[in-house]
Amino acid sequence: SDTITHDDIPPSGTIAINDSGNAEYTNDSSPDLTLSATDANGLDKMYITNTSGCASGGTEEAYATSKSNWSLGQTDATATVYVKFKDTSGNWSSCISDTIVHDGTNPAGTLTIDPSGDANYTNDATPSLTMNGTDTNTLAEMYITNTSGCASGGTWEAYASSKASWSLSSLNAVNNVYVLYKDIAGNT
User: Fold this and answer.
1) What are the residues facing 125 on neighbouring strands?
2) 161 CB-contact burial (10 Å; exposed 0-12 / middle 13-18 / buried 19+)
């Protein structure tokens, strides 16, 4: 005699495109993928691709819970990655996908010190600042400092178009104030 288990139930699973915890945007054109699948009789293979419906463009490989440095296949656009899973009985899951917006463009912008009085002089040691950052997506944070190159002296904070009472670094001298803008994808 011989025994065999009949299994015609396909596995189920999920895929997530990872980038520093942000599930909607990335500036990485080769992010890591997190994969998860379940099947009562065990998992065997997976097929990952950038082609809709899992029809082509991928390679069948051993099942794993992660895939490092997956090439999105398109940049500065919405990118979708597809996967299907195969169990040890040969059943394939449906094609599952995750989508992320790739943004590789750095934000731009200006900073204006708003003095009381003349545009080039002030007797106010804590003038207000006006920020005008622009980006193809959403600005998330700004880093304001009196240090050239923005290497130190500030802290990241939520983006705002103004900041009241900024402390100048030197009194009775020329002062420079610097700003970095960071968008939701992490570009600065």
Assistant:
1) none
2) exposed
DSSP state of 62: E
Distance CA 182, CA 188 (A): 4
Those residues with Cβ within 8 angstroms of residue 87's Cβ, 6 or more apart along the chain or in another chain: 7, 10, 11, 39, 41, 42, 43, 44
Which pTM was predicted?
0.80
pLDDT at residue 21, as a whole number: 59
- Which H or E run contains 112? strand 108-114
Judged by DSSP in three states, 149 sits in helix
**Two tokens at 70?**
């997956």
Instruction: Compute the distance between CA of residue 44 and CA of residue 65 in angstroms, rounded to an integer.
Output: 12
**Could you read off the pLDDT of 29-78 as tens digits, one per residue?**
999 999 999 998 889 999 999 999 999 999 999 999 999 999 998 889 99
Q: Are 99 and 82 in contact (CB under 8 A)?
A: no
